[in-house]
Structure formats: structure tokens, C-alpha cells
Amino acid sequence: PSRVVPLKFLGGLLGMGTGLALGREGPTIQMGATMANTVARWLRCGKRLSTELQAALGGAGLAVAFNAPMGGTVFVFEEVTRSFKPRLMVVALISTATAIAVARLLIGSQPDFQVVPPPPPPLWTLFLFGLMGGLVGVLGVLYNRLIVTGLDLAASLKCLPFEARAALAGGMVGCFAWFYPALVGPGDGITQQVLHGTSSLMPLLFILLIRWVLGPLSYAAGTPGGLFSPLLVIGAVLGAAFAHLFDHTFPEVGGVTPVAFAVAGMGAFFTAVVRAPLTGVILITEMTGVHTLMAPMMAAAFGAMLTASLAGGPPIYDTLRERMTASTRKSATESGK
User: Fold this and answer.
1) pLDDT tens track for 248-270
2) Is 0.70 surpassed by the pTM of this model?
3) What band does 323 get if pLDDT is binned at 50, 70 and 90?
4) At what angle are helices 258-274 and 188-195 packed, to 10 degrees?
């Protein structure tokens, strides 16, 4: 229904503004798909065209959230529809291009993150990027399970009304905000700090510990918000921490820069959780403006995709869709009785 748009807009602002570790891309994707559905009803479009419009405008919502037009377009095919059709390509391209044009008139065309491009890594480091991606892939599966566990735990508290469960999660996030105010919220500032390359190993591990718990806790509250931005924080921290650990273990070996591994880590963790490697590589490239790390990012995405698949963990959005479908069926059955 059309009321999804103002609810997601205001709910997302309130959730992120009060410190929940949620991303803006969740509401923007949902608002785009909802507006497409509304326009399709007005124009009396058929079901097929209506579905294509929803997918395309959802991708446009992602593109606007991260100022990443190609990432938003690829997202439509790799994650939303998982198919390639010429007409859908046309609809997705024009939707994303129009949305980005309007957004850049309002907020400019600078990448989301300001990164000084690191020198191209030596060829032998591709193995290291793949190894880092493999480790990140296993952690991505664990992170997905933690998100689902948080949702299950919140759903099991049936003795409490939904508002009380949300308040409980919000109160716990508030405790984090009281002691560590710089570590709450969507996390763009933390990611930017890591991409500066000035963070040492111990602060990175502390950030990882806090954000590892904060993301699933915030998502369990049921507040409008996405998973992408929090994923990027963890991915950047994991990549930079891996580079520092390698430097400490093999100090005589050069060519390993934390910034390069942080950028690749963002794409690898996105791949591990969402299982959309092309979207991850293109999205991170557009968000950072760094084009010299495509091969390392692809190696890291390959490692993450391989180990996450071998570990048997499903992509997070497949799991969430199945949960929603099961919940809808259960509600329909109960109302029928």
C-alpha cells in the first residue's frame, strides 16, 4: 500500500537518527518499489510490467542511497529478479539514471567515501585477498545466523507487546550509545575512519566486537532500516584488521596496505552475507571511487562466495523472505480458523 512510503521515510529517519545500526538503503529500496506499484496501478499496467517496475525502482532506491547507479542496476538483476531480460534492462537503466540525476542535483556527485587510492597491490597479494575473502565468508555465515537468532528471540517474547520488545532492543542500543556514542548509528563515519588507514589493530577489534552485536540487535527491533550500511562497517574493519595481523606476523613482507584490504573487505563481507558478488564489487567501487582494486576485490569476493556456499549458509534475504512467507501463511491460516 502507498502508506508504506511515509512510514518507511519517517521510521527510517527516527531509527537511524536515534542510533540504531541500520542502513538507509532498506527504506529507499522499499519506498521505490512501493511508488512503482502505485504508478503501475494508476496506469493499469499488467502484472508482468508492474513487477518489472517494482524491481527497477527498488534498484533505483539502492542507487540513490549510495550514489551508485551501476550498483543499483546490477542489484536488480543479481539479487531482486535473478534473471536478465532486455525490457527489464531498459526499465532499470532509465529508472536508475533518472533517480541519480535528481539526487545529484540535491546532494552532489561525490562518492560516499573519500579514499586516497592506494597503489596497485603486487600480483602475489591476490592470494592474500582470496584468503581474506575466505575467512570473511565464514564470518558472514555466522553473522547471518546471528541476525536470524535475534529475530527469533524477539519473536519468542510473545508475553510482551511488539512495542515493548522494540523498546527493549532500543534501550540496549541506548546503553551502547551512552558509553560509545561514536560507534552507534548506520556507521558511515566509522567506515570512513577505517578507510583513512590510520586505525591500529586493537581499536579495530574493539569496533568489530561492538558492531557485531549492535547490527543484529538493531535489526531485531523491527524498525525500518537496511542491512547494507552496517555490513560495510564490519567488512572494512575485517579487511583492515587482516592486513594489520599479516603485517605483525610477517613484518619483512611489504605490499600489504590496510586501506586496500578494507575496501576489498567491504565487498567480501557484502558477498558473504547477501551472496551477490557483482553487486558488491561494483557498489564498493562506486562508493569509494577506487578503480585500481577491481582484481583484488574480485579475488576477495570469490573467496567469500566459495566458503559461504561451502558452509551451507543461505543468503540473508532468502532467509528473511522465507520467514515473511511463513509468517503470512500462518496468519492466513489462523484468520481462516
Assistant:
1) 888 877 778 899 999 999 999 99
2) yes
3) confident
4) 140
DSSP for 4-29, please give it. HHHHHHHHHHHHHHTT---BTHHHHH
* 180 close to 188: Cβ distance less than 8 angstroms: no
Record the cell numbers describing residue 280, joined without a space.
558488491
β-bridge mates for residue 23, sequence order: 226
- Cα separation, 98 vs 111, whole angstroms: 18
Rounded CA gap, 221 and 168, in Å? 8
Instruction: Judge contact between 68 and 38, C-beta under 8 A.
Output: no
Is pLDDT at 331 greater than 70 in this prediction? no
Q: Distance of CA 109 to CAs 22, 58, 69, 182, Å? A: 23, 20, 11, 26
Q: At what angle do helices 25-42 and 47-66 cross, to 10 degrees?
A: 150
Alpha-carbon torsion angle 217, 283, 100, 98, nearest 10: -110
Report how far Cα 179 is from the mean position of its chain's Cα atoms: 25
